[in-house]
């Protein structure tokens, strides 16, 4: 959260430590890739241009993907 976002995206994980976060554009190109070992990391997206991105979160036992809007 938040979505849409301006500067930071916060990930809340209650069950799994986040290992990797990737943000891709509509062409599938990886724009941001960050490794973590945290339950609730944050990602700075302030340098991204406004638009739609795909937010992929990889945990030890989980994976989820969301569409985020940068404004």
The number of distinct helices, counting runs of at least 4 residues, comes to 0
Class inferred from helices and paired strands: mainly beta
Q: What is the terminal-to-terminal distance?
A: 13 Å
Strand content: over 45%
Query: Ranges with pLDDT <50 over ≥5 residues?
Result: none
Order of helices and strands: EEEEEE
Helix content: under 10%
Radius of gyration: 11 Å
Mean pLDDT: 92
Largest sheet: 4 strands, antiparallel
Q: Can you describe this structure?
A:
The protein is mainly β. The protein is built from no helices and six strands. The chain has strands at 8-10, 18-24, 30-38, 42-44, 51-59, 63-70. The strands form two sheets. A four-stranded antiparallel sheet has the order 3-2-5-6, with no helix packed on it. It is globular, with a radius of gyration of 11 Å. The mean pLDDT is 92.
